[in-house]
Queue: 3 jobs
Job 1
Amino acid sequence: MGAEVVGPDPRQNGAGRAGAPLLRVSDLFVNYGQVEALHGISLDVYPGEVVAIIGSNGAGKSTTMRAISGMLVPRAGRVVFDGRDVTGLPSHEIVRLGLVHVPEGRQIFANQSVRDNLMLGAFQQPRSRAAETAERLRRELDRFPVLRERQDQRAGTLSGGEQQMLAISRGLMARPKLLLLDEPSMGLAPLLVRQVAETVRQLNSEGVTILLVEQLAMMALSVAHRAYVIQNGVVRIEGPSAGLARNPEVIRAYLGGAAQQVEAQPPAG
């Protein structure tokens, strides 16, 4: 199966299951027209965690993320974020509350500059926080030096990996309490997939809570504290990442050894 997956130790960065979840999704049903895509999804994310959602193409992973972030309106069920029911709220209101979605496919503004894309991530911040926004911009340009080098360049001219860096940094400009990362490794070469994994680890070490959707199950389990396996619009298996990595069903279906593009790295201790 390749390298053993060892999930991060929640004690290293304050993650744990005590207290109320930051995000609670309960019995979520979502339709595309007459077709039911989600059949009662439930999941929790606690402060300080990285939680992964894995599954095959068409399983309902991205649909779950879109329903959480307000891009889709659920037919039934509840999404409670930071103690508030946000089910069916418009996306811009959900972003204002601190739940920020970095969508599948990056969705950058190709004709705008790198810098303008980053500043658009902070468009809901009040003018009174201009100094804080400037500091966040500096921090994101420091996080990915290539963005600093190309900040005046049109975003559409960046490589796929650079566009993914930009999409993540744009999300961070919105000061998220919870960051939803949807397929951040999509279309990237193995070296860049590893860089994405390291970025997730680094963000979590800085205190960012993350819900991660990934088709590359090995990568997802290597960075997550816990994971949910979605199949045909329902949660089939859930638990600590290290345990799922030893689950024969998960190994057979999702951890195809050489098919995975990133080796698991034990968390820094």
Job 2
Amino acid sequence: MLYERAHVNVQTNEITIPSEVEEAKKKEQEPIFGWHTDSQPFVCIVMLSSPPPDAMGGQTYVKKASGEIVKLSFPSAGYAYLLQGSVLPHAAMPALNYERETMITSFVPTDARFRECTNLDLAINYSPIEETLREFVGHKRNYVKKRLGLLDDIDPSSVEGVEQIEKVIDDLVEDLANTKRSMDAVKKAIEAR
């Protein structure tokens, strides 16, 4: 899915007046883009801007299954985090006294032995519908072909072999159901136009 490969986020509404900065520090900050999970399985967040020595805010918050929030800081440009963004809810927090620029690059496993959970739930809200849907359907078609090809390498003459076949089929059924759910997101985006 070339269109969804990467993008740059720029937060330009920095606060520079000292009194406004102090007031902003006292308030509970809302995420720039809200809590979300990504459409692609993995994401690499790279800081492009260099936060000043007295930087306030600008972290990426990650919510663990326990509900605990981990705050990922970026000491300077070039620092990065690799997240399983489709699983872990996360949010970019506002930088209070500098311009925050990050590059987000998405990654999808190419090995068909790994489940592929790419969806359009988030991406369809900010990407051209026709091109994104065309690339998504092509990507899913190729994945299903590769995944079905795994069945050729399994020996069905043992219980273990039959269980491996069942696992591949179960994963495909789950992925196709996920793909169908994405079609609901596409329909909503089309209706909202």
Job 3
Amino acid sequence: MDVVGPSGKLMQIFAGHAQTVTCGAWGLGGKLIITGSSDRSVIVWNPRAGTPQQHVREVHEEGVVSMCAHSEAPLVVSGSEDGSAKVIQMEAGKIVADLPGHEASVEALGWNHPGPDGISLLVTGSMDGKLMVWDGKTFDLRCTMKDESGLAGIVRFKWLPAPVYGSWLCACCTDGALRLFNALSGQCMQVFRGHSETAVDIDVVLMEGGNGQQLGIASGSEDKTCRIFTCTLSSGNVVLPTPETDKLA
């Protein structure tokens, strides 16, 4: 893996994995870099020296495909093609939690943004169609969420910002739909349809509106379109009726 600085010059080369590097993350506010690979390992790097501080081998039985570092704690979670997810203490290089339950590749994962009085949550999303919600500190399973058919694989998800909606996330799925979930209640709050093929990426934004906060969702799909969805979120945490949809070819 290469790191390029603001000037466009190559700053560092990180060499240590035996196979393809599939994912990476910054840890501890940029003090560390973590990478995952098809070789089933996770490496924690010193970004200045380009040297590995920890090399955690055979984390999974198959390749690592997804990764997310905690915004404050020295923790990183990795997801694998084998359906497993593991939480690693990056400074010690030790697995501190095993998150079982998925039956297919874990493609999406991440901690929420709870705010000062919120509840820390960690969610893992898989091609088996399930989003599993874990306590962000104890790693106990709180609930499992899925679409109405239970068949649409999870490709990506994005947490809404704190404080009011810090436990809500929006996921893009293999059936082309986007689904808004409340991870505390386990409910699917709204389904946004418009794509004809797999939705592969997503981003969200909250805006002030006349009747409450407006949720904006941008998505890209294998159908070669990007779409913008909007809806109104009431102060009672209820999604109001049908969203507007715009299509960008």
